[in-house]
Amino acid sequence: MGNRTLIPFGPQHPVLPEPIHIDLVVEDEKVVEAVPSIGFIHRGLEKLVEKKDFIEYVYVAERICGICSFIHGQTYCQGIEEIMKIPVPPRAHYLRTIWGELSRIHSHLLWAGLMADAFGFESLFMHSWRVRERVLDLIEATTGGRVIFGSCKVGGARRDITPEQMHWLLGELAEIEKEMRLVVDIFLNDNSVKHRLCGVGVISKDDAVALGAVGPTLRGSGVADDMRLLKYAAFGDLEFQPITRSDGDSYSRCAVRCSELFQSVDLIRQAAVRIPAGEIAVKVTGAPDGEVFSRVEQPRGEVVYYIKGNGAKNLVRFRARTPTFANVPALVKMLAGCELADVPVLVLTIDPCISCTER
Amino acid sequence: MIEPQTTIAILPETLVAETRKMRDQGYRLVQICVTRLGEELELNYSFDLNRRFVNFRFRQPKTGARVPSITPVYWCAFSYENEISDLFGVQVDGNVLDFKGTFYMTAMKHPFIHDDAPIPTAAQPLPGGQ
């Protein structure tokens, strides 16, 4: 056994967009144990539900995260609508699906840039984020916001997409798809990228399930689990099968996200063709009395909201279990046995979102 | 549309055995959640297998709540168990990765069982406008 050294990783580190701390026990250059710490940005947003009107709280839910903000709002609204048995108009379901998939594309491209930056491929980082800007332009044109969309509300959607906007959106999306293919081609075929990702941080299929992993971290280990199969929003009307890879390494997780970019484009196209005409929201009266677990697939994986109301305008309990929270144990497992130089890459392969995690 | 969800009432003393049965069937641990209901805490342990959602539920007194750890069955439960310990004061016996109250850095101990816990507000500007 070599000399053991304790190396603190984070909470401030060049590859970390948000603060997480990991104590790395290393023997020479090999990590033998990793102990994570969070808690630097706990905001108590779940507690805030006791003071906010349940209709107002959708604004807070959207602010749990700056990347998957829309899907947080959608998950919250879906839960409230289930408790109150609100008949959400079909068009609103389609609009939510389109904005949700645009969120997934921009989130995966954000991750791609950060990942490229982590393994030192700066031009790939810049190209990924350049393409992402075009996706944000689509979001801004259809919702009015680039980070916080504010387009989802209890009972439906706050804004509509006109036929002209939809036509323009699909045209832009075709151009974005071409650019994404160039970026993805490098991620999947470049030798230097493969050298950093292939065979690194392997999680077997059984381990991924036992560790409670979700999203691309789970699907990269060969488990075809995706909450979109629950057919929420408009997914019941769209053709969809989860994307999986079986190797369970960093390359597999990367490949799943890359393929999901094009899957999301396809889902938006399907939704744009099938979106029905009609109202986009219904009036909401009363207050939620009951409970539900609302599950939706975010870019990082399954998010679970527990919502409980007692007929008052303030909820009794709101609890969000975010995908990164579920993926931290898998990360700890990946880090044990890896080379010290691979730690930043492995941290990014779960696409961590710490503000989500801590709420 | 929400999928059918099954909630099963169990006793705290059977938690580990029931959880082991779920693991043996291939269920994934989805989450552990605590809800304060007056002078009691309601604990929910959720599992999923091929999108079949099963939830174990039991109650404990708000003060002195104590549960066995399920980390010997699902190691990944350590983060949830530290969370319910820090935010609700639930004592978890046998957590294999116990942060001993330092998982979350909160201004007050066990904020989620108090009515008078400080509610988050917008940050006040620092003197000098910085």
Structure description:
- The complex is a heterodimer of chains A (359) and B (130).
- In chain A, 47% of the residues lie in helices and 14% in strands.
- Chain A has 12 helices and 8 strands.
- Chain A has helices at residues 57-62, 69-84, 90-118, 122-143, 163-189, 191-197, 205-210, 215-219, 250-274, 323-335, 343-349, 354-358; strands at residues 4-9, 21-27, 30-37, 152-153, 156-157, 289-298, 301-310, 317-321.
- Chain A has a 3-stranded antiparallel sheet with strand order 1-2-3. A 3-stranded antiparallel sheet of chain A has the order 6-7-8.
- In chain A, helix 3 (90-118) runs antiparallel to helix 4 (122-143), helix 4 (122-143) runs antiparallel to helix 5 and helix 5 (163-189) packs antiparallel against helix 9 (250-274).
- The radius of gyration of chain A is 20 Å and the shape is globular.
- Chain B is α/β, with parallel strands linked by helices.
- Helix content of chain B is 16%, strand content 32%.
- Chain B has helices spanning 15-24, 78-88; strands at 5-9, 28-37, 40-49, 52-61, 66-68, 91-93.
- Chain B is globular and about 60 Å long.
- The A-B interface holds A 35, 37-40, 42-48, 50-51, 78-79, 82, 209-212, 225, 227, 229-232, 236, 292-295, 302, 304, 306, 308, 316-317, 319, 321, 325-326, 328-330, 358 and B 1-3, 5, 23, 26, 28-31, 33, 35-37, 44, 46, 48, 50-51, 53, 55, 74-79, 97, 99, 102-106, 111-112, 117-120.
